[in-house]
Write a structure and sequence with these properties.
elongated, Aminopeptidase, 27% helix, 34% strand, 7 helices, six-stranded mixed β-sheet, single chain, Immunoglobulin-like, alpha/beta, 382 residues
């Protein structure tokens, strides 16, 4: 059975001195066995002010951001209302830059089918493919978080997952960005894509993982979008594949990068700029507590990233030459996700004739990806 959930935001004419619009009221009801409605009564909300995006997974939700708006519902700083049907709850909070965020939590299996925005109405249609639903107690248990003695919640730590782990493989460069160029003309973007496709093939053969590529052809993907792919797919591990290069030709060998401590402030900015929704509901926390939660998530993610990097390096050593000080740290953008363990793998130096020849070899790339697959198996078997 498919349950259609309609989310309506109704607009009325109203003026304010501090804000252009206001959310007046929110109501949700199950109007029929196959339909539920959520009505946001609002004033002076334009299409340009509204941003809607979906987060899938075990806890699907729809996020509605309304810019330059206010609401008496949020006078205490946050809003939450629970329900008993297709809509589990609606949460709200005031965000920076006069933006209001409402999160509509849905039952598992739900997804956004379509959306329509007009000057006086926003309509979201949500489909729920009804399987055997979790009980309210079971659903609530998935929201639980561990607490320290200081009562500060800690985001759940991966890779302890009950579903198939999701591996996102990022083939560096692509399209108009060729990456580094080898001494005999080999392009980095070609090496990274072939390696990513081979790694996906090997991982799928195990039957243990869901595998997602940030690109599967010769096209360029913005760094922001690479991270969004990880978030949209609830990634449990992110691996970005590259080939190194220097002005000289002597350096060679594989290396693995994780996020440097100095780059963690940039990671915090990503949380806000990309409307990050983490396993802990940051929107209901004060700025100070929210910063603490991001810090805790970063520490846990850094620990997991380091553990995987160490496993990966030990496996790579059986199939290729390693660069000295193999585990390195940097502020690469693709490593900035605060709650997704991530590494950047340099397969070798394309500027070195020996490494270039090996990177252009199907056999060598296959052996390298066998080592990576073995590392992933070990990491998720702990």
């Amino acid at each position: 059975m498919r349950l259609g959930v309609y989310i309506i935001l109704l607009s009325f004419v109203w003026t304010m001195t501090a804000f252009a619009g206001e959310v007046m009221d929110i109501k949700a009801e199950q109007t029929a066995s196959e339909e539920a409605k959520v009505n946001f009564s609002v004033r002076d909300i334009s299409k340009a002010d509204v941003k809607i995006f979906e987060i899938s997974g075990d806890k699907p939700r729809i996020v509605v951001d309304i810019a330059d708006a206010n609401s008496n519902l949020l006078r205490s700083g946050s809003y939450k209302q629970s329900y008993e049907e297709s809509v589990v709850s609606i949460r709200g909070a005031i965000r920076p830059n006069k933006t209001i965020r409402f999160v509509v939590d849905l039952l598992p299996g739900s997804k956004l089918q379509s959306k329509q925005i007009r000057h006086d109405q926003i309509q979201l249609v949500i489909e729920t493919i009804e399987t055997k639903p979790k009980s309210r107690l079971e659903f609530a248990s998935t929201e639980k978080i561990v607490k320290t003695s200081s009562k500060v919640p800690i985001p759940r730590i991966k890779p302890k997952v009950e579903h198939k782990p999701v591996i996102v493989i990022d083939a560096g460069h692509g399209g108009h960005d060729p990456g580094a160029l080898g001494t005999k003309g080999l392009r980095e973007k070609r090496v990274t894509l072939k390696a990513a496709l081979e790694l996906k093939r090997q991982l799928l053969l195990t039957g243990r993982y869901k595998v997602v590529l940030t690109r599967s052809s010769d096209r360029y993907v913005e760094h922001d979008d690479r991270l969004r792919v990880a978030r949209a797919n609830n990634a449990d591990l992110f691996i970005s594949i590259h080939a190194d290069a220097t002005e000289g030709k002597t350096a060679r060998g594989a290396s693995v990068y994780t996020l440097a401590d100095r780059a963690k402030n940039r990671s915090k900015r990503i949380v806000n700029s990309q409307n990050w929704i983490m396993d802990v509901n940051l929107s209901e926390q004060t700025d100070k507590v929210g910063d603490i939660l991001v810090d805790l998530a970063q520490r846990n993610t850094a620990t997991q990233s380091t553990k995987f990097a160490d496993i990966l390096i030990s496996k790579l050593g059986t199939s290729t030459h390693l660069l000295r000080n193999t585990h390195r740290r940097a502020g690469y953008y693709v490593l900035l996700a605060p709650d997704v363990p991530a590494v950047l793998l340099e397969l070798g130096f394309i500027s070195n004739p020996t490494d270039e020849r090996l990177l252009n070899s199907d056999t060598h790339r296959r052996n390298l990806m066998t080592s990576v697959t073995s590392a992933i198996n070990t990491y998720f078997s702990r």
